[in-house]
Protein: D-3-phosphoglycerate dehydrogenase
Amino acid sequence: MSQRPRPRLVFERWTDPVAGDILELADIDVVKLDLGAPAGQGWAALESAHGYQVATRTDIARVEAGQQWLAGPALVRRCDSLLAVCSAGAGYDVIDVEACTSAGIAVCNNSGPGAEAVAEHALGFMLDLAKKITVADRALRSGPIGDRLVLQGSQLLGKTLGVVGMGVIGSRLVQLCAPFGMEVLVFDPYLDEQSAQARGAQLVTLSELVARADFVQVTCPLTAETRGLFGRAEFAAMKPTAFFITTARGPVHDEQALLDALVGGGIAGAGLDVFHDEPPRPDNPLLHLENVVATPHTAGITKEAARDIAVATATQWQMIFEGRRPPRLLNPDVWPRYCDRFHDILGFRPTRPVAAVSE
Structure:
């Protein structure tokens, strides 16, 4: 009887070394993808890979021709042994889900472990903008303040929070804001009214949310549906005293439309953890506005989150190669064909599926 091939997993880097420690004990051949090495070296690894832990857009942007390492149609066609691709965090815009599904490849993310870090970051943006903490810090460092009343901020107590995308992050943010007694609105086409109420929110349309909210928080993934979700019309409908905050992905909003709204006084300010181009260029005009607080896509980067994500990532890969259904499968329709390909490539059929976790 022939021996089963050893699964091969290619990764760019782990959020924490503990992932490597866990996988070292598994019967998996783990290969590091060096983005800075000659392309032929990377393709040699990927063309024999059964799993690919996809590099982030920020990492890919660091190298010339980095786009080739995204899990898109070209990579899928070239890597015909590939069974599964996973992203490190909740976002999966580095993966073309449709192309993978057509090829019988399972797509997974890690939507839960980093939620606390991102939700706290979003709350931090709210407090910073409302109380003008960064604005006051800049003023204090630049010279005598003069009249402190020019730095007068506002409070969160009793304000209206609008959450776009009530997944794990959005739900946790609502919990964190509970002590402020805020009215919570949510726009999420995949959420029913009963589920929204159970999470302490009122389900509304996007147009109603932007018109009523004092803080518009975007926590949805980047998909074909959400790309360009916030444009001139949405920013024009917001209150001039409202703040726009996003920890989602840059292309969910129109940067030029946001800039115009901020410069023209259409909205009071913005907290941005994501940009169209990452890292953003130093001359990006959004970075030079006093009413903008920005971070370089670091909302989910805490010591605790990095370790939790790494553990979840490694554990999910173990489950995949043991023939179990991954807990964060994003394209469940692929399962029958995936099982056929898994059997053909690794020599046995997945037989121990587990229920997918709630997103």
Observations:
- Residues 354-359 have pLDDT under 50 and may be disordered.
- Residues 324 and 352 are 5 Å apart (CA to CA).
